[in-house]
Automatic annotation (TrEMBL):
<feature type="transmembrane region" description="Helical">
    <location>
        <begin position="136"/>
        <end position="159"/>
    </location>
</feature>
<feature type="region of interest" description="Disordered">
    <location>
        <begin position="1"/>
        <end position="22"/>
    </location>
</feature>
<feature type="transmembrane region" description="Helical">
    <location>
        <begin position="97"/>
        <end position="124"/>
    </location>
</feature>
<dbReference type="InterPro" id="IPR050922">
    <property type="entry name" value="LytR/CpsA/Psr_CW_biosynth"/>
</dbReference>
<keyword id="KW-0812">Transmembrane</keyword>
<feature type="compositionally biased region" description="Polar residues">
    <location>
        <begin position="1"/>
        <end position="12"/>
    </location>
</feature>
<feature type="domain" description="Cell envelope-related transcriptional attenuator">
    <location>
        <begin position="200"/>
        <end position="381"/>
    </location>
</feature>
<dbReference type="Pfam" id="PF03816">
    <property type="entry name" value="LytR_cpsA_psr"/>
</dbReference>
<feature type="transmembrane region" description="Helical">
    <location>
        <begin position="63"/>
        <end position="85"/>
    </location>
</feature>
<comment type="similarity">
    <text>Belongs to the LytR/CpsA/Psr (LCP) family.</text>
</comment>
<protein>
    <submittedName>
        <fullName>LCP family protein</fullName>
    </submittedName>
</protein>
<feature type="region of interest" description="Disordered">
    <location>
        <begin position="455"/>
        <end position="501"/>
    </location>
</feature>
<keyword id="KW-1133">Transmembrane helix</keyword>
<feature type="transmembrane region" description="Helical">
    <location>
        <begin position="37"/>
        <end position="56"/>
    </location>
</feature>
<feature type="compositionally biased region" description="Low complexity">
    <location>
        <begin position="467"/>
        <end position="484"/>
    </location>
</feature>
<dbReference type="InterPro" id="IPR004474">
    <property type="entry name" value="LytR_CpsA_psr"/>
</dbReference>
<keyword id="KW-0472">Membrane</keyword>
């Protein structure tokens, strides 16, 4: 019995029939190869991994498809979360741990997408393309890689920059809780110039925000306020049981340096005892519990404004850029320049002068201008501005801002800031025009507390009284119309007196000449309105 080997099909000894031009482009005509190249690039752009499944390494393609589906699921989840709970989404981006995870994911996605594009190029096999088509496909590949991997990589870089800035500026600690439904923050503009001993906050503003609606109010405290009281339970009761009441040496902005140098032991666990003391003082003055502070170094404030591209305001009056001190006196040289009235965009240098200048005006005019700058900045902090200038803002912020706000809660505060943009910002100044001038020296704290509460919790409007009924009814006869009388002829007009000579127009040259002449009285009158300001 003989055994013969099975017949082998002639077809089994031949290579596969190359009829699939997508996977086997060798036998396809040149136009088909070009279409195949563009198809594979489009698949990698829209669904990374699909090109490998169709025409390359299927195992690699399946792995990439799984990653793509997970990425799309995360994007969809983020969109849903943004619609349902924007605050939670913002907290993911600002929390130190979750933001680090996001940075790693973005960087990995950028690298993975780039790898898939390079692998797609190998699958395309440019050598099979016409010479002119090779350059077009290669250029398209570069553009797509920059638009995809480059964007994701830049996003990871920005997020990491923001994460580092948050870690440098803000504190770690438990979340802050609203008090009476509000968050109250102390915002100080600190100055540690060469001619000063220690840092003094020349700008003292409390920002109070409704924890639900985002309705915000700013309350300015003049830097020369005397007899400041402290919030209940403050450690400063031990040092100043009757309040900060030693006259000119105890104006409120001296408190920061005083506590930092002489009473640091009252705040043994505070990173910045002076700032904690200022929070206690501001809380006692206004009758509020202050939960956190933000301290802006005024010397670097101009960098932050420049990072934003300037700040747009509508100035109501002329503001001088004060000249140098005259040695041995309290006087100054004539101004080095002027900020004119009207709508304008101030760069950092001029915005800083606008917020600080107080020559020939009361302290309260400067407080009003500082509030205006804050309001204008809030108006400008739209997402487009922040994203396009994020790196410069973050870099400037790490150099000029110090705060005890908890980093992990920043998402909640950013969400409130976005809500605040839909409301008008309320403003109150502890001084003219809201209070008499003498309030800086002899504050009536009961009256201040009442005004603050009326600002934050305005009483409900009283219902309008019903209109009185008209006399007479349709049942009775109509009242006779009053008789008309002809007015007497007008007396002849008296001859007009010669017109008084018109005052000279207020120009920068005119104001500068007044300053050179030392005409302080006229300058005080002409600059009295320079606290008037609104966002541009």
């Amino acid at each position: 019995m003989s055994f013969s080997s099975p017949k082998v099909s002639r077809a089994s000894n031949k290579p596969p029939v190359l009829t699939d031009p997508v996977r086997y482009p060798e036998s396809a005509p040149a136009p088909m190869r070009s279409k195949r190249a563009w198809l594979l690039l489009a698949l990698t752009l829209l669904v990374p991994g699909s090109a490998q499944v169709v025409a390359g390494n299927k195992r690699l393609g399946r792995l990439a498809l799984r990653c793509t589906l997970v990425a799309w699921a995360l994007v969809i989840a983020a969109v849903v979360l943004a619609l349902l709970n924007r605050e939670a989404l913002l907290n993911l981006f600002t929390n130190p741990l979750t933001s680090l995870a996001l940075v790693v994911l973005l960087a990995a996605a950028a690298a993975g997408w780039a790898i898939m594009f390079m692998n797609t190029l190998a699958i395309i096999r440019p050598s099979l393309l016409a010479p002119g088509m090779r350059g077009l496909v290669a250029a398209a590949l570069v553009v797509l890689m920059v638009a995809t991997s480059g964007t994701l990589g830049y996003g990871a870089y920005l997020l990491n920059t923001g994460r580092n800035a948050i870690g440098s500026i803000f504190a770690s600690g438990p979340d802050m809780k609203p008090v009476d439904g509000r968050y109250n923050f102390l915002v100080m503009g600190g100055d540690a110039g060469a001619q000063r001993i220690g840092r003094r906050p020349d700008s003292i503003i409390v920002v109070s925000v409704d924890a639900k609606t985002g309705q915000a109010a700013t309350i300015s405290i003049p830097r020369n306020l005397q007899n400041a009281r402290f919030s209940p339970g403050s450690p400063l009761w031990k040092a100043y049981p009757d309040g900060y009441n030693c006259g000119d040496n105890c104006i409120i902005n001296f408190l920061y340096t005083d506590v930092t140098e002489n009473h640091k032991d009252l705040y043994p666990h505070a990173a910045d005892p002076g700032a904690e003391a200022m929070m206690d003082a501001a809380g006692g003055v206004l009758g509020l519990q202050i939960q956190g502070y933000v301290l802006v170094d005024m010397a670097g404030f101009s960098k932050l404004i420049d990072a934003l591209g300037g700040v747009k305001i509508n100035a109501g009056g002329w503001v001088p850029l004060t000249g140098a001190d005259i040695p041995g006196t309290t006087a100054h040289e004539p101004p080095t320049g002027w900020i004119h009235p009207g709508v304008q965009t101030l760069d950092g240098y001029h915005a800083l002068w606008y917020a600080r200048s107080r020559q020939w005006v009361l302290e309260y005019s400067r407080s009003q201008r500082q509030q205006c700058i804050q309001q204008a900045l809030l108006k400008q902090m739209d997402p487009a501005t922040v994203l396009t200038k994020f790196n410069a803002i973050a870099d400037a912020g790490t150099k000029v801002i110090e705060s005890d706000l908890p980093a992990q809660q920043l998402g909640s505060f950013v969400s409130l800031a976005l809500k605040a943009k839909s409301h008008d910002l309320k403003r109150l100044t502890i001084g003219p025009p809201d209070f008499p001038v003498e309030f800086s020296t002899y504050p009536n704290f009961g009256q201040i507390h009442k005004r603050v509460q009326d600002l934050l919790n305005p009483p409900a409007p009283k219902p309008a009284a019903p209109a009185p009924k008209k006399s007479g009814t349709s049942a009775g006869p109509a009242a006779p119309a009053p008789a008309t009388t002809t007015p007497p002829p007008a007396a002849p007009a008296a001859p007009s007196a010669p017109a008084a000579p018109s005052a000279p127009a207020v120009t920068q040259q005119y104001l500068q000449q007044l300053a050179i002449n030392g005409n302080d009285e006229m300058l005080t009158m002409l600059l009295a309105n320079n606290g008037t300001c609104s966002p541009g």
